Amino acid sequence: MPMLPVPGCLLSPYLLPTSVPPADVGALAAAQVRLRLDPPLRDRVLALLADGEVPVEVCRADDFPALEAPWLTAFGATETELCVLRTASHVVRVQATHRPHGPTAHHWAGRAVAYALACALSAPVVDERLPRVLGARELLESLPGPDGALPMSRWVVALQSPDARGFWCTTSGLDRFGLPELQVLDIPPVVAELWAVTITALAQRVVQIWDAEVRARPGAAFVPLPDVVAVSAADVETAYRRRPAGHGTVELRLALDVEGPRGPTFLTVREPDHLAVCDALFGALER
Description:
single chain, about 290 residues, alpha+beta, six-stranded mixed sheet, five-stranded antiparallel sheet, 9 helices
C-alpha cells in the first residue's frame, strides 16, 4: 500500500492577460461570480473570496514567464490566444491557496473565479500549473456537477508516446492535487487511445480516494493509498460526462515508482491485461 506525503499547501494559480486592467479587481470578481454562477456553488465561492481564500490581484505581465511557455502550443493554444498573451501589459492573477483538509475545494473555487473574470474581461486563461490555455466554456465545464465531483478530463491531460514495446501513457495535472502522476507501460497500439481515457478515469478514482483518506486523517504527514483501485464505466462517465459502451469494472494494481534520487515519482499501473480492461470499460465494439 503506497504511503504518500500530504503537502503543506496546494496552489491553484490562473492568469488572465489584459491591457485594460480593472481598477478594483476584487469587486469585479465578486460581482461577476454573483452574475454568472448558480447556488450553491456561487455562495461557496463568494464566501471564499470574502475570506481571502482566493486572492485576486493585478500584476505586470513581464513577471510571468508562463505566458511564453512552449507547452502552451503543445496543449493546443491558438495563434490568436498566443498573440493576446504576448501583447498584454498586465495579468489578473487568481490564486487559491489551500491546506489539504479538503483537497479539491480550492481548485474549483479558483477556476470559478477565473471563469467569471474571463467572461468579464473577454480574456483567455492560462492554467499556470500545466501550463495550458483555457477558454471560458472549458472553465465552466470543469466545475463540479450536482454530485460535487470534478470531471477529471478537464483537469488532467493524458499524454502518450511510443516505446519499444508499445505505448507509454502518463497523466499531467495530478500534482495539483498533491499526488504523483499515473503511468501505464507497454500498451498495445490498438488500445492506446482507450488507455488514455482509462488512465483519466483511474485519476478520477484516485483523487476521490485521496480526498477521503486525507479528510479522515487531519494533520497526518503521510496517508495510505490502496494498492488496488477499482475503476468502472461509471468512473469514465464521471471523468468525461459521457457514458462509454462498456458496463464492467476492472481492478488496477498500483505501485509507487521513484526514478532515481531526483527523478519523477509515478503511481504505476502494474501489468494490466490491456485488452481485457478496455473490453470491460468500453466494450469490444468500441475497440
